[in-house]
């Protein structure tokens, strides 16, 4: 279906992403999930293919992916492993932040290795007491001459166990600020966070910053840019990643369910011949189609820098992750007891789909932001409707 909306180049990328995911990701994702680890070789291959730096501009050594192509990558990888989309997500957010806001020195030092996947970036915003409420971070950057001392803790940081560079959000002189902290900075401790509900092979970690000294030159952009410009700009890509990953989960849930329905007999006939099961499959495929369209719309709005791009991206993340949850729920139901086995792929889809409703701003936060956009649109007399 999607191809009719894609350029020949985008379709060609999609075929490459899908064959990589089918050969190198999907067959192993359950094993990775149980082991709570992603092999270094897969991360390396994503780097060698150029996909970790896909979003970077060509003049910076990247592939210059437009948001749709980045979305297609997340969709294809997401159909194989939700956890692995976490890497594309956070690494791309760090990379795009440095490309857009980094000083010359920061770009010279970090951008090329990030683009090549030689180093891995992670996005460290959430704290135990402040997730969605990101204005209330307690991490502090205190000035000591030409240095900053970083003090605080971050939690649930995706791919932090193997990351080399952290984009860390906190307060500097009372202003929301983002800084770069390399992993080998003395005083930084990375502790694996295991036993998560989903995204089990996404190498989550807790970061403790205990008197980490970094040069003031590691501030990204300017003090005060942390939330208003840097985090929100990065999250556009993060949410595109999540929305399309949710489409991938729906594809995988539908395919597994249809295969199961075609092979499982109960009471003398196939599940596929039962009206109620066909109804589930019809709902799943309808929601998948709608999710693809809303994700395409959001990616194209972002590419064209349209006025309503933010709202479109928020809607895509909200809708596609909610439908991924519904699809994975039906997939488990269609698989019955087998689907409830932790090692069964649909169980993983179910758990990962739930994560997509929480990360990158919970779905409640998406609704709050969308509602605000809608109110703004209708605030000056006659509605200036875009929808
Ligand atoms: C697998 C995983 C990976 C993650 N990766 C990262 C990462 O790489 N980097 C990072 O910085 N963070 C990461 N996070 C953290 C994630 O972004 C936060 O958990 C998320 O933003 C929600 O914040 P919170 O957990 O503090 O929830 P809270 O803010 O405590 O909210 C709890 C619930 O209440 C709802 N709620 C809160 N306020 C309101 C309100 N005013 N009105 C209505 N409802 C409200 C929320 O929607 C949510 O459902 C990750 C989390 C998970 C689970």
TrEMBL record:
Obligatory cofactor(s): FAD
Keywords associated with the record: FAD, Flavoprotein, Oxidoreductase
Occurrences of domain Acyl-CoA dehydrogenase/oxidase N-terminal (ranges): 7-118
Residue ranges of every copy of the Acyl-CoA dehydrogenase/oxidase C-terminal domain listed in the record: 232-374
Domain Acyl-CoA oxidase/dehydrogenase middle: 122-211
Superkingdom: Bacteria
Pfam families per UniProt: Acyl-CoA_dh_1 (PF00441), Acyl-CoA_dh_M (PF02770), Acyl-CoA_dh_N (PF02771)
Family affiliation: Belongs to the acyl-CoA dehydrogenase family.
PANTHER family: ACYL-COA DEHYDROGENASE, ISOVALERYL-COA DEHYDROGENASE, MITOCHONDRIAL-RELATED
Designated name of the protein: Acyl-CoA dehydrogenase
Organism: Chromobacterium sphagni
């Amino acid at each position: 279906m999607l191809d009719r909306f894609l350029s020949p180049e985008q379709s060609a990328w999609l075929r490459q992403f899908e064959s990589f995911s089918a050969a190198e990701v999907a067959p192993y994702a359950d094993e990775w999930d149980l082991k709570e680890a992603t092999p270094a070789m897969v991360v390396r291959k994503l780097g060698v293919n150029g996909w970790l730096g896909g979003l970077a501009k060509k003049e910076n050594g990247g592939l210059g992916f437009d948001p749709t192509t980045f979305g297609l990558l997340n969709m294809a990888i997401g159909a194989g492993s939700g956890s692995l989309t976490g890497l594309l997500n956070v690494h791309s957010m760090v990379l795009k932040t440095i490309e857009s806001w980094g000083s010359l020195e920061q770009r010279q030092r970090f951008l090329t290795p990030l683009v090549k996947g030689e180093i891995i970036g992670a996005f460290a915003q959430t704290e135990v007491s402040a997730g969605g409420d990101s204005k209330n971070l307690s991490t502090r950057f205190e000035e000591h001459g030409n240095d900053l001392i970083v003090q605080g803790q971050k939690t649930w940081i995706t791919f932090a166990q193997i990351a080399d560079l952290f984009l860390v959000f906190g307060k500097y002189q009372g202003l929301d600020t983002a800084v770069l902290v390399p992993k080998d900075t003395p005083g930084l401790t990375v502790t694996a966070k295991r036993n998560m509900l989903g995204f089990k092979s996404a190498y989550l970690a807790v970061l403790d910053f205990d008197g980490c000294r970094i040069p003031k030159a590691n501030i990204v952009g300017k003090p005060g840019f942390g939330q208003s410009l840097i985090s929100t700009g990065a999250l556009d890509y993060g949410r595109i990643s999540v929305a399309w990953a949710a489409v991938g989960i729906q594809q995988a849930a539908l395919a597994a369910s249809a295969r199961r329905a075609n092979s499982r007999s109960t009471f003398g006939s196939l599940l596929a011949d039962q009206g109620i099961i066909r109804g589930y499959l019809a709902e799943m495929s309808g929601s998948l189609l709608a999710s693809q369209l809303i994700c395409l719309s959001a990616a194209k709005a972002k590419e064209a820098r349209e006025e309503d791009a933010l709202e479109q991206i928020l809607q895509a993340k909200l809708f596609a992750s909610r439908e991924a949850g519904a699809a994975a729920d039906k997939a488990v139901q269609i698989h019955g007891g087998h689907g409830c086995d932790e090692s069964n792929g649909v169980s993983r889809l179910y758990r990962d789909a739930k994560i997509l409703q929480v990360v990158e701003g919970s779905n409640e936060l998406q609704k709050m932001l969308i509602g605000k956009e809608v109110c703004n649109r209708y605030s000056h007399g006659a509605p200036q409707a875009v929808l």
